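Data availability (excerpt). All sequences and predicted token strings are deposited with the supplementary files. A representative entry, Baeyer-Villiger monooxygenase, is shown inline so that the format can be inspected without opening the archive.
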Amino acid sequence: MAQHEHVRVAVIGSGFGGLGAAVRLRREGITDFVVLERADSVGGTWRDNSYPGCACDVPSHLYSFSFAPNPEWPRTFSGQEHIRAYLEHVADTFGLRPHLRLGHEVTLMRWDREELRWAIETADGASFTADFVVSATGPLSDPKTPDIPGLADFPGKVFHSARWDHDADLTGKRVAVIGTGASAIQIVPAIQPKVAGLALFQRTPPWVMPRMDRKISGAERRLHRALPVTGAARRGLLWGIRELQVSAFTKHPGELGLVERIAKANMAKAIKDPALRAKLTPSYRIGCKRILLSSTYYPALAEPNVDVITSGLAEVRGSTLVASDGTETEVDAIIFGTGFHVTDMPIAERVVGAEGITLAESWKDGMQALRGASAAGFPNFMTVIGPNTGLGNSSMVLMIESQLNYMADYLRQLNVLGGRVALDARTSAVGAWDRRIQARMKRTVWNTGGCNSWYLDANGRNTTVWPGTTAEFRKVTRSVDLSEYEVVRIPKRAAAPAKAVAEEVVG
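Structure token line:
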């Protein structure tokens, strides 16, 4: 028999956002909740991305919850395995295991206007109803693979970086890496020493800064264990430095010239061939696309078994890859480092709101959500890492914690209002918020830097990045302003006429 369960809150996803929401719910005294996770373990993107060399480009002590400091980080920039272990530790430490429903992929969420609750269906046949839903699936959860003619007939291994095939032995093989984003620049130096040949298909070269990574000494870890205030101070310093950088990205992109010179020096140190250096030099302002960190990427590209093809992949003919410029390359395996569905998140197609339309349909002209959380027409539903909450230079965990403050106050407001009640963001409030964001976006490096990045949607609107400091975002998400919402209650049902009732009873 299919399982059915009603809960106060349903959280979708068990990455940083989902686990953070679960911890915050328990700290608010709410224990009637579930965390629905499609995979068989927690971790989100840090579970899914297990490719060689996978690591974070935010310092470890800043890439962790403020309420769950980790004095045991082994490196200043932690690897995937350490971050995943940290999230497992959070699940255990805060007693989240009983709330987890692993292997429960959400296939449909529909708002019930009569009952003021969400009806949720999952792929395994289980169903839930919830008064409130927190969607924490994240923008980096569903890989994007381009539709390449002939790809289906390629005879070798093909996989995306976020779905790494650990059974594929690349030793001595000719491998193509498609894309030059954050994953690709970690994969290339990790596999270059063992492959026979590596063809890197590069449509646009990235700006790459040196990665100042090192082991954290035992003495440092002992100090942070004995005196937690030292770990907090370290985190505060890392945060403050990044807050000071924000104005260069959002108001004064011209100030980024010095950073470009550092990146060019990082390249020149490893790339001696002028022709290759020209291929790898971006023509847009640094910061327009995500700034990448690596001290091994350029040295790997300088090796004789690597070929940089300055064109995208256009066609596959058997084992021959044809670039847009006509270049042909024979390979045995293809690895796509082509990013994710960020501005067209698949979860939006599975959420049906009060007007009977999906969130994807509501967002057909671009994602919009009040304070990055609430979309009009979707009552008692909020996103974590929603529209315009992304960062270009700091830790997303800071933004997540701010949104959890907003979630907590949202639930408090529902309790104060009392009874069966919902809050639906006003269309006017969502529109006003979006206009403010887009007006500020006009002068940012992401909109003026001369590039086409994944920050922009199909209409050229920047619907992903927050154009301010994390401190400012924390301020604007500290509490819910009820004037920005409509209060929705169950409609009163008209009483049946007495005669009709009598006839029904007699009949």
